[in-house]
Every structure is written in C-alpha cells, then in structure tokens.
Amino acid sequence: MRDYKIVVCLNIVSERTEISIVIPVYRAERIIDELCKRLKQHVSQISEHYEIILIDDCSPDNSWNKISENAIKDKRIKGYQLSRNFGQHHAITAGLDQCNGKWIVVMDCDLQDRPEEIIKLYKKSQEGFDIVLAARKRRKDGFLKKITSKLFYLILSSMSGLKFNGEIGNFGIYSNQVIKEAKLIREPFRFFVSTIKWLGFNTTSVEVEHDIRFEGKSSYNYKKLFSLAANIIISYSNKPLKILIYIGFTFSIGAIFFIAYNIYLKLTGEITELGYTSLISSIWLLSGIIIASMGVLGIYIGKIYDGIKSRPLYVISNKTNN
User: Fold this and answer.
1) 225: burial class by Cβ within 10 Å (0-12, 13-18, 19+)?
2) Which of 54, 187, 200, 310 is the most exposed place for a label (fewest CB within 10 A)?
3) Long-range CB contacts (< 8 A, 24+ apart) of 175-178?
4) CB 21 within 8 A of CB 53
5) Helix 63-73 crosses helix 32-43 at what angle (to 10 degrees)?
6) Highest mean pLDDT among 55-64, 227-236, 242-251
7) Residue 21: beta bridge partners?
C-alpha cells in the first residue's frame, strides 16, 4: 500500500510597514528620548505599523547608547551605528537602505523638524503625490544664518542648474517607489535634496512649523557649507567649466585687440619698445587664469577618480538587536 505525503503550505502574511522614519543622528544624546517619544505619539495616529530608523553617524557623545536604550523599549525603533563619521547624507543613505515602509519620512534629529508635522505630510501624500516636501516659511534660525542660507541656495541654484528653495530641506515624505529609485544612485558624493530633485516624480510642498533647536548647535559651519556647495556644483553641473571657457575666450579676444593696438602704436612711432608693466601684468593675469582652470579640471578629474574606486558609501559597525 502506497503512502501519500500531504504537504501543506502555510502562507504567513505580515502587515506591511506603513511608514518608515529615517533620521541621521549626530551629537544628540540629550535629544533622542524626546525625539522617540514625540515620534511614537504622533506617528501612531497614522498607523501602528511604523518603524523609526536612527543612524548614528559615529557621534562622539552618548547617542548610540541612547538609541540602544530606546530600541530595547520599543522594537519598532531600529538603530544602526556607522564605523566612522561618513556625513549626514551618507547616513541618510544608510537609513534608506534599511527601510521597507510604504512611505518614508526623512528628517533631522534636532527637533527643528517637528514630528507633529508628519501627519500633515502624510495626509497630503494621500492626495496622489509621490513626494511631499516640508516648507519652513518661518524658520526659527538666527538672522545671520537666514541670510547666509539664502545666499547659499541662491549661488547653488545659479551654478548647479537645479532650483533650490531655502525653505525646503531634507524633511519630507516620499513614496516607496521614489526611495527605490533614489537607492539606485550610488554616486560617492551624497546630497539627498538634489537627488530627489533630479528624480522628478509628482511633487508638492506644504507649509510646516519650524522649531528652534532642542539642544546644542548645528555641526555645519561656514567652511562645511562652502565645501558642500562646491561639491554639489561639481557633481551636478559642468557650468564651472563653461565659465572658464567664456573667460578664456574673453581674454583671448582682449589680447588680440591689445596686440593690434600695440602694433598700431609701434607703426606710428608712438612707442619704441613694449612696456615692461603691461608685459608682467599680462603674464601674471594669464598665469592665474591657467592655474585656476587647471584646478577646476583637477577637481572634476578627482571626482571621477573617487567614483571609479567603487568604495561602499558607508560601513555599519553595530546595530540594535531587534
């Protein structure tokens, strides 16, 4: 008598995560508890199926221990620690690679991006938008920071070929499809805002309240902002090279007229020999332009070199046990 084996397939269907909140963390040991508390309080009004992903960018303070403590209390809080300080936007990339929500919120950890506003962003996304950005109409920053920020985005827009708005930062909600496409971009230089702009998709913005920083001060100084702007311009535009071409043509045309004028003076007998001052001035001016041009070309070549090395964008050294 033949024995028959009956194989029963059990499909275990788990409810999909509705919202993932991705937050890069740096010098925030006194903020983490309040951040997690307010996030749980307000995101749970949308859905109980959410996850909070905190990426510790090798913060020199006690941030990682605080993340671990909160992860033990609530399994929906997931922490990842990078092996060294890779930078805010690399940390965001690390968080996006770990999330699996239907909607993804990206925000800063300093509580200037208010967790309460996530509800507003989510409601707007349900109207058919892939991207809903938070517009900070009344920023709670100092006067000098507001002015430098406007100048920063003005120069950035004119040089990079992308239109940036100083009212809009990383804070926003993005569909899973948008983040899926964003994760395919593995360029070594990372700037989340410009990546989202480049992708396109159906985008809108809503006005949100902006708070003062809960604790400490921003890690971005003027030197870092200048470096960030330069990297964005080089990574997303060839306009600096075009400007150098225009400068080169302008000085070449000027040099032709200058030579013709000096020939005319020579033929009319008004000068017997070319002046030392004009000669030295021309040498110094053109040498400076040539060296500057080589410097810009060197930066572009350096970016190509960084890209072909294909190093990982970040390295995770630790993660919470959930």
Assistant:
1) middle
2) 310
3) 175/102, 175/103, 175/104, 175/125, 175/130, 175/131, 175/201, 176/101, 176/102, 176/103, 176/104, 177/130, 177/201, 178/104, 178/130, 178/131
4) yes
5) 30
6) 55-64
7) 52, 105
Give percent helix, percent strand, percent coil of the chain, each to the nearest 5. Answer: 50, 15, 35
Q: Compute the half-sphere exposure of residue 321: CA atoms within 13 Å on the CB side of its CA.
A: 5
**pLDDT given at position 316:** 92
Mean pLDDT computed over every residue of the chain: 79
Dist CA 7 CA 163 (whole Å): 59
For residue 231, CA distances in Å to 101, 218, 300, 322 come to 31, 20, 10, 37
Give mean pLDDT, residues 234-238.
67
Determine which of 86-95, 175-184, 261-270 has the lowest per-residue pLDDT on average.
261-270
Q: Is the separation of the CB atoms in 205 and 134 below 8 Å?
A: yes
From the list 322, 319, 321, the residue with the least C-alpha distance to 56 is 319
Token pair for residue 156? 């950035």
- Strand, coil or helix: 84: coil
